[in-house]
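ok so dumb question maybe but i'm new to this and my supervisor (M.) told me to 'just get the structure for catechol O-methyltransferase' and walked off. so i did the thing. is this what she meant?? sequence i used:
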Amino acid sequence: MLAAVQKNATRGDPRSVVKAIDQFCRQKEWAMNVGDEKGCILDSVVTEVNPATVLELGTYCGYSTVRIASLLPSNAKLITLEFNPDYAAIACQVIAWAGLEDKVQLVEGASGDWIPKMKEKFGIETFDLVFLDHWKDRYLPDTKLMEECGLLRKGSILLADNVICPGTPDYLEYIRNSPRYKSQYFKSHLEYTKVEDGLEKSVFLG
Ligand SMILES: Cn1ncc2cc([C@H](O)c3cccc(CNC(=O)c4cc(-c5ccc(F)cc5)cc(O)c4O)c3)ccc21
Ligand SMILES: [Mg+2]
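this is what came out, is it supposed to look like this??
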């Protein structure tokens, strides 16, 4: 995938990096990027929220990191957590090829360890937008952890990938029934396939 980016994408052009990855995943080898269809929904949410602070849980190869960072205002900050060093190494190069390293802080480590340190380590008060795309059984515990650490404010947006496939049943049940969130489901398809999947957008009500 990285070779395809370096071969087919233009340095400093995030859209060409996204296109190169999508082409590679359609033509050569499927990979678990959010993909072009759900990616358009992600883009519209990022544009609507226009966040100053973003947390991404699960960098993988940096595809969604590039999509989000390319839409951020100049002073905005995106922190993305990746616990797998091999994925982190690839993502770092993909983000650099897109020319977005100044907007992105790629942190190697597990969400459960780093969420409690966000304020002290990165001077973050609260996140305007959180994109959840890591282990599906971590969505719920990490959301509760972000609440406990005071990282969400009235109006913070959570956007969760894969709420249908592979699925995040405990997270969906919690977020859709909690009086502290207003949720909306965006029906789509699993990246590069015709299988149903979707994104759940939730507003924290405080
Ligand atoms: C704790 N912590 N903190 C940071 C952090 C970062 C990671 C890694 O980035 C990582 C590694 C492996 C798996 C994931 C989750 N993603 C998925 O499992 C997924 C699956 C599919 C799918 C769907 C259908 C299939 F048939 C097969 C795979 C489609 C998708 O879009 C996915 O996101 C994330 C992990 C834990 C982490
Ligand atoms: Mg995903």
